[in-house]
UniProtKB/TrEMBL annotation:
May be involved in the biosynthesis of molybdopterin. Belongs to the MoaB/Mog family. The gene is moaB. This is Molybdenum cofactor biosynthesis protein B. The lineage of its organism: Bacteria, Pseudomonadati, Pseudomonadota, Alphaproteobacteria, Rhodobacterales. NCBIfam families: moaB_proteo (TIGR02667), molyb_syn (TIGR00177).
Amino acid sequence: MSNAKTREFVPVRIAVLTVSDSRTLADDRSGDVLVERLTGAGHSLADRAIVTDDVKKIAARLRDWIADPEVDAVISTGGTGLTGRDVTVEAHKSVYEKEIEGFAVAFHMISWEKIRTSTIQSRACAGVAGGTYLFALPGSPGACRDGWDGILVHQLDYRHMPCNFVEIMPRLEEHRRRT
């Protein structure tokens, strides 16, 4: 395996989903943060959407992107809290083939440094389905910055060592191939 200094950057095609009953593209600050961060890092915005806090609508949007060969990863923002309308996590988990438990752990470690015990009110999560990475972040711009700057900017960069999500992308669906 070559070292990080000799690896070429590999842009990832990322869709951004905002889950909200009240936001529009004009006032979606959290979605804007994610788009700014991912494009600033050299990745491409594959698509962007806003859906209401409804498990079926969220899961349907995720499934559409999972089926789209032009989408490598989805980052959602919003709906990860504890209130009755916070159903993003349930929607995400309903489509996961594998959950990435360490994502929540890493997010809480980063969040702890900033908001201490209030981090327990977040249910940030991640998983993989159909060869597509799915990440669910809280709905605040600060939480989106923390999730991107602390985790995703590194794990979605092929040059990040000792390992990253990009280098295993070709193997995410190897279980579907016949031997």
